Amino acid sequence: KALSRSSVRSRMALKPPKAYNSLQKGALVWDPKPLQVKKIFEALKKGLNEYLEAHQAELDYLSGRHKDTKRNSRLAFYYDLDKQIRSVERYIRKLEFHISKVEELYEAYCIQCRLRDGATNMKQAFSLSPATKASRESLVELYRNVQECTEDMCFIEGALEVHLGEFHVKMKGLVGFARLCPGDQYEVFVRLGRQKWRLRGKIETDDSQTWDEEEKIFIPNLHEKFEIKVTELRGLATILVGVVTCDSSSFFSPKPQAIVVDITELGTIKLRLEVLW
């Protein structure tokens, strides 16, 4: 166990783990979430592999043109293609390293998760056995092991978040059919953890929409979902249109994702966004 922990810490540049406030005053609780981490890891790996396949296809296409150009002796075009090929090859190597690093982190995370589960099961078994000095000492040691595994899992979660990239979110407007009228003003508030984006828009006389901001960059994390709140502005008053949450696991894709979110329960007002990872 000690060797496993030291290897985890020594191989990775780790962010400070996240400590979550517990219900008890003054206490801190380590709170890793293995199921959510697995979900994000699978989505991230799928997206990275799609990026890799797209650039491999581009490399194959450029390599074919490179051979044809070499036979035709068009030197200037040949050297330009050669530069493009080298650039794509460097990016492919970077992607392959990124994928291997993500897999290494998740493998270490799973090991710590299994160790924690085993220590937790043994702790429960010892707690049901007759109280002796040996069983009490074993319980203390098992409790320490559970805490150490939990701490390591939180450290690895922080290290994995470094490899999640960025989400570029573009505002595409509201869709409301008869609900949207010229002159109506709306405020859209998007939050992901501590990251916030507040923008205001107006419905014009030609039914077009103008917004004071069009794009925002969010840094994804493992545990938080997008929270979207839309309010209608009427003079000094504000009327809540709706609040929804949106899971970010589907955004790990090399292609821009068009997102349409139902803001009202009946879907009479929708919000259109575009997310580029």
What would you say this structure looks like, in words?
Residues 2-277 form the FAM65 N-terminal domain. InterPro entries: FAM65_N, RIPOR3. Belongs to the RIPOR family. Pfam families: PL48 (PF15903). This protein is an alpha+beta fold. It folds into two domains: 34-162, no CATH class; 166-276, Immunoglobulin-like (Sandwich), CATH 2.60.40.150. The chain contains four helices and eleven strands.
Shape: flat
The portion of residues assigned to helices is 40-55%
Structural class: alpha+beta
Strand content: 25-35%
Biggest sheet details: 5 strands, antiparallel
Protein name: RIPR3 protein
Family: Belongs to the RIPOR family.
Strand-helix topology:
Blueprint: H1 2-11, E1 19-21, E2 28-30, H2 34-72, H3 75-128, H4 133-161, E3 167-175, E4 185-192, E5 195-203, E6 209-211, E7 215-218, E8 226-234, E9 237-246, E10 257-262, E11 270-276
Antiparallel strand pairs: 1-2, 3-7, 3-11, 4-5, 4-8, 5-6, 8-9, 10-11
Helix pairs in contact: 2-3, 3-4
Short description:
The chain contains four helices and eleven strands, in the order αββαααβββββββββ. It has 277 residues and is of the alpha+beta class.
List keywords for this structure.
five-stranded antiparallel beta sheet; disordered N terminus; FAM65_N; 26% strand; RIPOR3; flat; RIPR3 protein; 277 residues; 2 domains; Immunoglobulin-like; alpha+beta; four-stranded antiparallel beta sheet
